[in-house]
Amino acid sequence: MSYKLSSTLLGHEQDVKDVATTEYGGLVSVLRDGTTRIWSDIYTTHSEATIVFHSPTNSFINSVACINGLIASGGQDTMIYLSDEHGEDKYQLIGHEGNVCSMSYSHCQLISSSWDCTAIVWNLEEFVPKYILSGHESSVWNCQVLGEDQYLTCSADKTIRLWHGKSEVKQFVGHLDVIRKLLILEGGEQFLSCSNDGTIKLWDLQTGKNLQTYYGHESFVYDLALIANDKFVSTGEDRTVRIWDLATGNVLQVITLPCISVWCVTALPNGDFAVGGSDNLVRVFTAHPEKVAPEEELLKFKEAVQSSSIAEQSLDDLKKTDIPGYEALSQPGKQEGSTIMVKNPDNGTIEAHQWSGGEWHKIGDVVGSSSSGKKQTYQGKEYDFVFDVDIKDGEPPLKLPYNVNDNPYTVAEKFLSDNDLPASYTDEVVRFLQKNTEGVSLQESTNDSNNPSAGRVIDPYSDAYNKQQGNSALKVIPSKSYIYFTDYKRELLVNGLKKLNLSQDSELQLSDQDFLAVESSLLELNSKQALELITKYCSHIIRKWTASAKLIGFDLLRVSIPKVTTVDILTSTDAAEIILDVVNLGLENINVENPALLMMILKVLNNLVGTTLFVQLYIDPCDTDNKLYEYNTFFQNLLKKLQNSTAKLTQLAKLYTSTMTALTTLVYNLSAYQLQTSALKNNMGSAKPVIEFMDNLGNQIVASSSEAAYRLAVAYGNFKYGKLYTNETPSWLAEAGTLYAINGEQRFLDIAEDLKNI
Fold first, then answer.
1. How far is CA 487 from the centre of its chain?
2. What is the DSSP letter of 374?
3. Are the beta carbons of 147 and 188 closer than 8 angstroms?
4. N or C: which end of the chain has fewer CB within 10 A?
5. Which of 707, 666, 653, 689 lies closest to 583 in space, CA to CA?
6. Higher pLDDT, 173 or 565
7. One-character DSSP codes across 510-560
8. Which DSSP symbol is given to 729?
9. What residues pair up with 89 in beta bridges, in sequence order?
10. Model confidence at 201, in pLDDT bands (50, 70, 90)?
11. Is 140 exposed, middle or buried (0-12, 13-18, 19+ CB in 10 A)?
12. Helix/strand/coil (H, E, C) string of 636-671?
């Protein structure tokens, strides 16, 4: 029985991270664009999806489960949201402190797992945790319900654990790397696991023995699904979907997809299955001839696979001097899924072909094989890029190897895991990789004298970045990555706080106990500690200390805001009100003698953009259906205060370049937020106060520095791209070109070129 493409479901804007079937046989998918979608007819490429949930913080959604007519969505903001199939929000489950990466519902029980190293079994009558399963030493990637009060979990700590209630009773050890998924087999006495070590293992639940290991995948294995009592399907980072015979371990069929990562798979009630991948698509594969896609669609799919590229570096056994020609394709493959490399006699390109269904199928060209570009060698392998990543001052940078057609999320996860760094940095690493490899094609040389492959993690809009890029086209619009001000030196912050504390009246000073609490929190700042700093210490300092000393209160606020999770925000009714109050108070104290205070407040505001706190503070619905949103009066008044405060520095703008850069960073971040947030991006009214703000201050900003002018130009480009800037070309933009583009700053010429093409 062979599976063929039935349909391709279009509409997603980012990676499809999880798929599940509803109780009625429908299909639900979740993805990095923050949405959960249910599909009306999965056996047609023209199927329309209904968005039944959209993350209020625009955060990635990584997991989904169907529960008694409700759809559970969990992801980056640590929350689990329950909504019905019509998109009506019903309940929220609060308990995790990290990204919710999996959920499972069975035997009338819901369990979820997270990067916070725990799994939670939920009480669905009161919507609170029933059991918190603690014991894993790293992220818990998957969890399954075995029966009443019986659960399985697997983790990045390379273990699988069996639980009775909240008590761990057994461990299963055998995988050599992160374990990504568990699959309970019929009868519940055996289960499968898959891992980043490229293997799938069959386990006996009672004895804990590894009964069989399935070899075939060439990279990480991400997901599993049972499609019959004797067959299962797997997906992975090697671009393949593999169908297995459970008993023999033989690969029955290999389907190669035109995407880097095949993230997820779910079995359909009729034995078919659906997969989601990094190319933003859901594909349905069928064993029923009447449901196979039309020949035209099958041909498009085949061509997409053949035209995709494979990194030379991913083929460990590739020997360039010993590549046969097309004559090798006359011999059958050794087994289903076998891959060989052959040289195209016409152009010398090395092609990858895979044996599937009794014939060879081209699955892509091996890029890098005929490239004249110099590669960088790291740990015995060649890469397009080897970045230096600065983690701590005074310590040597860590090496981050990357090929242009690698999946950046996979690279980021591996880098953080290898270097024992928090998984919460994943998005930051991904943004860096995407920005520092923008405009590099798979076929181009990535290492010439004008575009060195090694660089440091730096602000992507800094002069240093653009010097690194040389004369290559920037292609910066649209630009949706936030720029945050999160770095701090604990010693300097503590010493400054100590000095300023002693300068205050005795009754206003922090006690020795309070000071030690602040000092201890800054050592390894977590969410609860950050919330305490905001509500207790930042509030006190900014409200009670002298004008010159308030600065350090805002510095503590800047550091704390990015650390607070959605869960903890929702448990504190004071945080948002305090931030609103102290920001307004700080702006009233701005003067020419104290410009640093304005700069620090701007950094605080930048670190707020895109967070739950930002939504709480400054975003309100503006229509009767609550589908469109605008900045509320608080925020609009804030922009006016910022404008007035900045105007005080008008005559000396060039002396305050850092402050002006922080100001334009805020404008840029707001433009990125406008594009990222579906409830805002098509709403002219929401963009208007920000556009007026940038136009009112544009000339002053442009005069201050080229860096500030550039960030403002990128923000303008974002609004123009979103069809939200309808005025005539502003005078300050022309002035920026006159001052900087004509004088040879290539990045302004690149922006101008981008604007012509919008």
1. 20
2. P
3. yes
4. N
5. 666
6. 173
7. PPHHHHHHHHHHHHS--HHHHHHIIIIIIHHHHHHS-GGGHHHHHHHHHHH
8. P
9. 83
10. very high
11. buried
12. HHHHHHHHHHHHCCHHHHHHHHHHHHHHHHHHHHHH
Measured in degrees and rounded to the nearest 5, phi and psi for residue 598 equal -60, -45
DSSP state of 451: B
Cβ 55 vs Cβ 75: under 8 Å: yes
How far apart are alpha carbons 362 and 427 in whole angstroms?
34
> DSSP class of residue 741?
I
Find the angle CA(502)-CA(505)-CA(508) to the nearest 5 degrees: 90
Can you give the pLDDT at residue 438?
Answer: 52
In DSSP notation, 685-698 reads HHHHHHHHHHHHHH
Higher pLDDT, 300 or 421: 300
Backbone phi and psi for residue 238, each to the nearest 5 degrees, phi listed first? -90, 15
Q: In sequence order, what are the residues at sequence separation of 6 or more whose Cβ sits closer than 8 angstroms to the Cβ of residue 683? A: 622, 628, 629, 630
Q: What residues contact residue 487 under an 8 Å CB cut-off, 6+ apart?
A: none
H or E stretch at 500: helix 490-502
* In the predicted structure, residue 421 carries a pLDDT above the cut 80: no
Sign of CA dihedral 554, 621, 16, 158: positive
Name the 3-class secondary structure at 675. helix
- Other Cβ atoms closer than 10 A to 88: 10
User: Cβ(122)–Cβ(93) under 8 Å?
Assistant: yes
* Distance from C-alpha of 584 to C-alpha of 634, rounded to nearest angstrom: 10
This prediction has a pTM of 0.55
- Residue 90 CB-half CA count within 13 A: 18
Tokens of 466: 């653009």
How many residues are given for the chain? 758
DSSP secondary structure code for residue 597 in this structure: H
Q: Is 626 left (phi over 0), alpha (psi -120 to 50) or beta?
A: left
Mean pLDDT, rounded, for 671-684: 75
- Identify the DSSP state of 713: H
Please give the radius of gyration of the chain, using alpha carbons only, rounded to the nearest integer. 27
Distance between CA atoms of 629 and 615, rounded to whole angstroms?
A: 10
Structure tokens at 70: 């409700």
Q: Which two tokens stand for residue 180?
A: 């990504």
Burial class, 536, CB count within 10 angstroms (exposed 0-12 / middle 13-18 / buried 19+): middle
For residues 112 and 78, the answer to whether their CB atoms sit within 8 Å is no
Q: Which residues pair with 200 in a beta bridge?
A: 194, 214
Band of pLDDT at residue 719, cut at 50, 70 and 90: confident
C-alpha dist (Å) from residue 28 to 48, 65, 381 = 12, 9, 40
Per-residue 3-state assignment (H helix, E strand, C coil) for 266-302: EECCCCCEEEEECCCCEEEEECCHHHCCCHHHHHHHH
Contact 580, 608 (CB under 8 A): no
Residue (of 343, 370, 352, 388) closest to 442 by Cα position? 370
pLDDT at res. 462: 32
71 φψ region: left (φ > 0), alpha (ψ -120 to 50), beta (else): beta
Identify which of 230-244, 368-382, 601-615, 666-680 has the greatest average pLDDT.
230-244
What is the C-alpha separation between 224 and 216, in angstroms, rounded? 14
Lowest mean per-residue pLDDT among 247-256, 271-280, 708-717, 730-739: 730-739
What three-state secondary structure class fits 506? helix
7/26 Cα distance (integer angstroms): 14
